[in-house]
Write a structure and sequence with these properties.
Elements (H helix, E strand, L loop, with lengths): L1 H17 L5 H6 L4 H42 L6 H50 L9 E3 L14 E3 L18 H5 L10 E2 L16 E4 L8 E3 L5 E4 L12 E4 L13 E2 H6 L19 H9 L17 H5 L2 H13 L9 H8 L7 H6 L7 E3 L6 E3 L1 H7 L1 H21 L7 H13 L3 H4 L5 H7 L1 H9 L1
Antiparallel strand pairs: 1-2, 3-8, 4-7, 5-6, 6-7, 9-10
Length: 466
């Protein structure tokens, strides 16, 4: 959990530092070389990673909140806090379900975007690595036989081999550059119409220039021999056998000119000119490069997939909680049990009664108290101890089993008109903690509708949770 939050904080800081307010067109215009193209693509990747991290954090935090409040509802179900905790549990459970559903719905498109963009970045980096250094000059020639390619007559071939090198590092110093402007593309992911990444057709080696040197008047009818220490062959007719030989040919390293032309993949054009040939021909064929259509499809699939942090229940404004659907459901259930109909004019008053009265302090009474209400359950080797929040993290199943069983016994005893003696100690402890929470004045109102709420709390809790 801590790692996810740290990663999320870093990514949010990255997004804050790189946002410049540039438009899509301005961000695209900033891509003028490989380095800008790289940070441009990585900004999108960082944003997608941020979405996933946010989604996972939403799921983790809302699940933890729902678990904590569910335990609190079980523990305090037969107290004045019971109805309030039942409503909060329903709100938190709905949040957890929404967070999980959002992740399940949006994750496939985000993961596809990450996969396609990561592959594209790797392809462009490989191209840069192979074309950045010049091809070295060959150092020694060899006899290459007599097979003609360029001529139709008798030839003798002089050949040389050379191993191209590759660059391992590209220096991308952002000082004085427009890196931040390029990174701003991440702010437009959901409504992109084009992207400044090079097309699959541009991921190729540059045009090579081949040169051969001819010295004197070489005659192929004579024997030719490699010139020692040189990428050349000379006529072996008794003359010199070095670079000063009168007649011979020399080989130069292939050369090429490197240049950068920014890509401009217009989505409507790419999708309108879709070619079926871009996909594998058979089940055994593998695409070696990312097709433009695949890239565009992945990016357009990100529309509506942004994931934002969820406001946790404890951080919601009290008015939001009082008017939440779960709270209204509680009120309607209460009125149904009493054989009444919930009136619009009564909603505000009854909602406040759910949480203790007119001067309700939901955060203080229903959330802060869960970090202070330490309790011991069981004894000996099976003893567990902690606050409601701690128990929800470390002993949730055992604590829920205990309080559910305890509540069931109380319900049975109540139906028989007696309270189990072994439960009075736990009741006293919970009521003491309730008073420590500072809500003893408002939450113990047992007159009118509030009295019914307290008596019916287990039933209402069951109504909401099941």
């Amino acid at each position: 959990m801590k790692t996810v939050l740290l990663n999320l904080a870093f990514l949010q800081l990255f997004a804050t530092l790189t946002a410049t307010g540039a438009t899509e067109a301005e961000a695209n215009a900033a891509v003028t070389d490989f380095c800008h193209e790289r940070v441009y693509a990585e900004a999108i990747i960082a944003k997608l990673t941020d979405w996933l991290a946010t989604a996972k954090t939403n799921v983790e935090t809302t699940t933890a909140d729902a678990r904590k409040l569910q335990l609190a509802a079980a523990r305090y179900g037969n107290t004045a806090k019971g109805p309030g905790f039942a409503a909060l549990t329903a709100i938190a459970t709905a949040q957890a379900a929404d967070a999980a559903a959002e992740l399940a719905t949006k994750q496939p498109a985000i993961m596809l975007g990450l996969q396609v963009l990561t592959s594209k970045v790797a392809e462009l980096a490989t191209l840069e690595a192979l074309t950045k250094p010049a091809i070295p000059q060959p150092t020694q020639a060899q006899s290459g036989g007599t097979t003609a390619v360029a001529f139709s007559g008798t030839v003798k071939v002089c050949q040389a081999t050379v191993t191209p090198t590759q660059a391992a590092i590209a220096s991308c110093n952002p000082n004085g550059k427009k890196h931040d402007q390029a990174k701003a593309i991440a702010e437009h992911i959901e409504q992109l119409t084009s992207i400044a990444l090079r097309s699959a057709a541009d991921v190729r080696l540059p045009t090579l220039t081949l040169r051969a040197e001819v010295q004197g008047t070489p005659d192929a009818s004579h024997t030719i021999a490699p010139t020692p220490g040189a990428a050349a062959c000379h006529i072996n007719n008794g003359g010199t056998n070095n670079r000063g030989a009168a007649d011979g040919v020399g080989l130069q390293a292939p050369t090429f000119k490197t240049g950068f032309t920014a890509g401009k993949l217009v989505f409507s054009t790419i999708q309108g000119n879709r070619k079926h040939s871009e996909g594998p021909g058979t089940e055994h064929d593998v695409n070696l490069l990312t097709a433009d259509t695949k890239l565009v499809d992945a990016l357009t699939g990100l529309a509506g997939k942004a994931i934002k942090p969820i406001t946790r229940v404890a951080e919601l404004p009290e008015d939001t909680i009082l008017n939440d659907e779960a709270t209204i459901d509680m009120l309607e259930a209460q009125q149904q049990i009493e054989g009444k109909e919930l009136k619009e004019t009564d909603k505000s008053r009854l909602a406040k009664q759910l949480f203790g009265g007119e001067k309700v302090k939901i955060k203080e009474v229903f959330f802060d108290s869960l970090t202070k209400d330490s309790v011991t359950i069981g004894s000996g080797a099976k003893e567990i101890k902690g606050t409601t929040e701690q128990l929800s993290k470390n002993h949730f199943k055992k604590a829920m089993a205990y309080y559910n069983t305890l509540n069931l016994k109380k319900t049975v005893a109540a139906s028989k008109g007696a309270e189990p003696e072994e439960d009075t100690k736990t009741d006293a402890a919970d009521k003491t903690e309730e008073k420590k929470g500072g809500d003893n004045k408002t939450a113990t109102n047992t007159t009118g509708s509030n009295s019914v709420l307290i008596k019916k709390a287990p039933l209402l809790l069951a109504f909401l949770l099941f």
